[in-house]
Write a structure and sequence with these properties.
Rossmann fold; Arc Repressor Mutant, subunit A; 270 residues; 15 strands; alpha/beta; single chain; 24% strand; three-stranded antiparallel β-sheet
Length: 270
């Protein structure tokens, strides 16, 4: 694992836990305490973390953004979601209008897009996605307002739905709680259903971001029919059987390779 890999691992760990000791990080990463201190010294210099007694804590991370139902999903299959985001980023072209929903997969895509220098208009109903995209002044960000859903950190309800019905998107990216390749996507959060369904009818291309753990799962209600989905971006841990079935149902399937070194580090932290 390179120094950059270790530093990113630390940032991911702090995003999940808030703080961590030097000794715990050294044991998890399998390196010396001195190596950890050098890595953290660089992160402290950048202002990415704050030094604490015996370790570090995250900097500039308001807890209200994370202490929600979304928090429990942010660190799950993080490396897979990052790989999916990198692959999905290649679908976005300059001057396009793009929709991102409030899923953890779309949040990773927002973070990746915020690092790019391209003129894109992004529409979202997610407060957290807006904050991520706002880091790039070249992006034009439009937030769909409405009733604030504290579990998803997104705006939903009749006002948000009415606004979504007036817009058209070149590309729309959505995540899902569960996915059956032969049927479609499933969700358990009722407030988020309608936005996804409306956006699916208002876009030129609908892209589903779904890591391998979503396949073969069913939730409370079906939201999108597989016939509505133009492209699926998944990771290379998705089974061959699921990919074969998916290829028969969806026009374009992208399989993103996962960084196995980073994945190993995440596994040790579990």
């Amino acid at each position: 694992m390179t120094a950059n890999d270790r530093r990113q691992f630390v940032l991911d760990r702090l995003e999940q836990d808030g703080a961590c000791s030097y000794d715990a990080l050294a044991a998890t990463l399998g390196v010396s305490s001195m190596t950890v201190r050098r890595d953290l010294g660089e992160l402290i210099r950048r202002g990415a973390v704050i030094k604490s007694v015996g370790g570090v804590q995250r900097a500039h991370a308001p807890s209200y953004l994370y202490e929600t139902a979304l928090h429990s999903r942010l660190a799950v299959n993080r490396q897979e979601k990052r790989a999916i985001a990198r692959a999905a980023l290649g679908l976005i072209k300059a001057q396009q209008t793009v929709f991102l929903d409030g899923s953890s997969s779309c949040l990773e895509l927002a973070r990746a897009l915020a690092k790019e220098k391209r003129a894109v208009t992004v529409v979202t109903n997610s407060a957290l996605v807006c904050l991520e995209l706002g880091k790039n002044s070249e992006l034009s960000v439009v937030g769909i307002g409405g009733h604030y859903d504290a579990n998803s950190l997104s705006y939903v309800g009749p006002q948000a739905e009415d606004w979504a019905k007036t817009l058209f998107f070149d590309l729309a990216f959505v995540g899902t709680k569960a996915f059956l390749p032969a049927k479609g996507t499933f969700e358990s959060s009722l407030p988020t259903f309608r936005i996804k369904q409306i956006v699916a009818q208002r876009c030129g291309v609908l892209v589903l971001l779904a890591d391998h753990s979503k396949f073969g799962q069913r939730a409370l209600s079906q939201v999108l029919d597989v016939a509505q989905i133009h492209t699926v971006v998944t990771d290379d841990r998705t089974s061959r059987a699921d990919l074969t079935l998916l290829a028969k149902k969806v026009k374009n399937v992208l399989v993103a390779p996962v960084n196995r070194i980073a994945q190993k580090g995440s596994a040790h932290a579990a």
